[in-house]
Specification:
The complex is a heterodimer of chains A (203) and B (420). Chain A is mainly alpha-helical and 203 residues long. Chain A contains 9 helices and no strands. Classes of the chains: A mainly alpha (203), B mainly alpha (420).
């Protein structure tokens, strides 16, 4: 139940994009059509869900004072987290290129750029500062990824729809995406403040 | 044909003064049907054009408006202990309500239509009628004492960012009226939440609440009522009677569950609308009449309404069964009583069914309505930050409506391909 709460909280209530405004670059750039947004969203869920537990293990058993080297190596945290993320993204890239070349082409440069997607590193750092345990970090990774996925396919569907609207020329494209993100942020404030733990009896 | 000839004579030239011509055209089409047809509209279903469609919605709202005006007056007098029965002192209540309501309506229309006219002239098309409905809905979802400059700001935000940036009427993603309200809600929360904002003309004086002195509007109607020998307003400045809080049923329910609600209001009072709240949301039977009218003339979608009812009812039942035997009193409120409180019916009839922002596929409407009902009930009951959920639930689902449509269309395409 605890894990379920963290999943719900990170997906809807503390949404990565619309509450923390993390991972904006690929969110704005790859949200022109639903199909590519869907692919990138799945990739982000996968990367977040894999890197989070790996980073948890590294943080706990390699860098901590009770870890392998018995010294405080937390100053290496950023560099090691990024290395893990980069290698995972390489893996995803190879898989997508093999499985779906069309998606690989439409994602283009933004697929390797998941490496520097702040949502991924941000997720790992949140995990450290919130002191999640192993199971919680998996739930947080999957939930955060799912929230990011929902946000990007929602804005992609809206952007497909407003392609036919008479948007003022100055706002077409990125300007509209920024306005939309702000308005979606307002809509997502609907769920902010709910604490699922109160109702599931774990608190 | 005297009027038509006269109007044709004063018609400004379109080339020389585009703004005046747009203005003229907007009002001309109130009086006469133009001999041209709507071009590039969004609601091409039958012979009903956009303006007639909008006027039907405005018609459906009129009863709510009148009831809202009386209700403002009723709560003003109830708070200072005069005319406790709903129909006692009706002329005073109506006059007080109208004095509060008419400036709100005027400011909403001035700001909203002003922006609309400006863009119509600038882009060189006829005035779009979209604001007629939003302009009627916005006053109905505001508290009676809202400061007019805040109202003007919120309307400007909604029309500018919510509509004109997206290309005008029929292209907005989020509901304009709700966007105006949500702007007030997050930017100026003290004017639209709490127990004191729902009763008009009450100010805090030192440690006590008293009713504020009446302005010139009240003196003017006092003069007329006095001439007829009816009861008059007097000076104002009376103390608020002991024990009157102005708390809405939902505020009570979130603190003490259904028992706390029934200790102040009876169920029939809540059903017929004699409770504090936003101006037009309280009287359920009138709203249901409006909803049936809208379904009858084919504007509002019954799928969204039924879906929303089902979603809210099922979620509330689930909460009932979840909360049995725990200390969560709000979750234990019987599911059918959830419909007596708050603005569920207003949101269902006039907000969720907005044909522009709702999902537009048939199956999509069911999903859209159902999810609004479920999420709105979750926000209302489980989110301690907000007293009522429908505004935010509808905005939340507005964001997802294009996505729902996308996947419904995709599955339809797939089904057809399989059949072929």
């Amino acid at each position: 139940m605890e894990l379920f709460n963290i999943f719900i909280k990170s997906a809807f209530i503390d949404n990565m994009v619309l509450a923390y405004f993390l991972g904006m670059c690929s969110y704005l750039a790859v949200s022109k059509t639903v199909n590519t947004a869907f692919g990138l969203g799945l990739a982000v869920i996968f990367v977040l869900g894999i890197t989070m537990p790996i980073n948890w293990v590294i943080n706990e058993y390699l860098l901590g004072e009770n870890g392998l080297f018995q010294t405080d190596l937390t100053f290496l945290r950023f560099i090691l987290f990024i290395a893990v993320i980069a290698s995972m993204v390489q893996l995803v890239e190879m898989i997508i290129e093999k499985v779906s070349p069309a998606l690989y082409n439409s994602l283009g440069i933004f697929l390797p750029l998941i490496t520097v997607n702040c949502a991924i590193l941000g997720g790992s750092l949140f995990m450290v500062s919130r002191e999640y345990n192993f199971g919680e970090s998996v739930a947080f990774g999957l939930g955060g990824g799912f929230g990011w996925f929902l946000a990007i396919i929602a804005i992609a569907a809206i952007r497909e729809k407003i392609k036919y609207s008479n948007v003022p020329p100055a706002l077409r494209g990125l300007g509209m995406a920024f306005i939309l993100t702000g308005l979606m942020g307002i809509a997502f404030m609907a769920l902010m403040g709910i604490d699922p733990a109160v109702y599931t009896g774990t608190k | 044909m005297g009027l038509l000839d006269f109007l044709k004579k004063i018609e400004p030239d379109k080339k020389e003064s585009p703004f005046l011509h747009t203005l003229f055209d907007g009002f001309f089409t109130f009086a006469f049907a133009p001999n041209t047809v709507t071009k590039g509209g969004v609601h091409i279903r039958d012979g009903m054009d956009l303006k007639r469609l909008m006027v039907h919605v405005v018609l459906a709202l009129q009863l709510c408006l009148i009831f809202g005006a009386i209700n403002i007056g009723h709560h003003h007098f109830a708070s200072i202990g005069l005319y406790p029965g709903f129909v006692e002192g009706l002329h005073l209540k109506l006059a007080h309500g109208l004095i509060k309501l008419i400036p709100i309506i005027i400011v909403t229309h001035l700001v909203g239509l002003g922006i609309e006219f400006y863009y119509a002239a600038k882009k060189g098309h006829a005035i779009e009628e979209g604001f007629l409905v939003s302009g009627m809905l916005i006053p109905l979802i505001m508290p009676p004492d809202i400061p007019l400059w805040i109202l003007a700001l919120s309307v400007a935000f909604a029309v500018w960012i919510g509509k004109e940036a997206f290309g005008g009427t029929g292209m907005n993603i989020l509901n304009i009226a709700l966007l105006a309200r949500v702007f007030v809600f997050f930017a100026y929360p003290t004017t639209i939440s709490g127990d004191e904002v729902w009763v008009s003309n009450i100010v805090k004086d030192g440690t006590d609440h008293i009713s504020a002195a009446y302005g010139w509007g009240h003196s003017f109607v006092d003069m007329i009522f006095g001439a007829f020998g009816w009861a008059t307003f007097g000076e104002g400045g009376k103390a608020v009677i002991d024990g009157y809080t102005g708390a809405t049923p939902l505020a009570l329910a979130s603190k003490g569950g259904w028992d706390a609600v029934t200790s102040v209001y009876t169920p029939s009072q809540m059903w017929w609308g004699g409770i504090p709240g936003s101006i037009g949301e309280t009287c359920k039977p009138i709203i249901i009449v409006g909803a049936l009218f809208l379904i009858g003339v084919g504007i509002a979608s019954w799928r969204v309404m039924v879906g929303m009812l089902l979603g809210a009812a099922l979620t509330a039942m689930l909460m009932n069964s979840m909360a049995a035997g725990t200390e969560h009193l709000f979750l234990q409120v019987p599911w059918y009583y959830q419909f007596y409180m708050g603005s569920f019916f207003f949101a269902m009839a006039f907000m969720a069914t907005d044909p522009v922002t709702a999902a537009s596929t048939q199956r999509g409407k069911w999903i859209y309505g159902f999810l609004i009902g479920a999420i709105g009930m979750i926000i209302r009951v489980m989110n301690p930050a907000y007293p009522e959920g429908w505004m935010l639930a509808i905005l939340f689902m507005n964001v997802f409506a294009p996505l729902i449509d996308h996947y419904v269309l995709e599955s339809n395409i797939k089904k057809r391909l399989n059949r072929a």
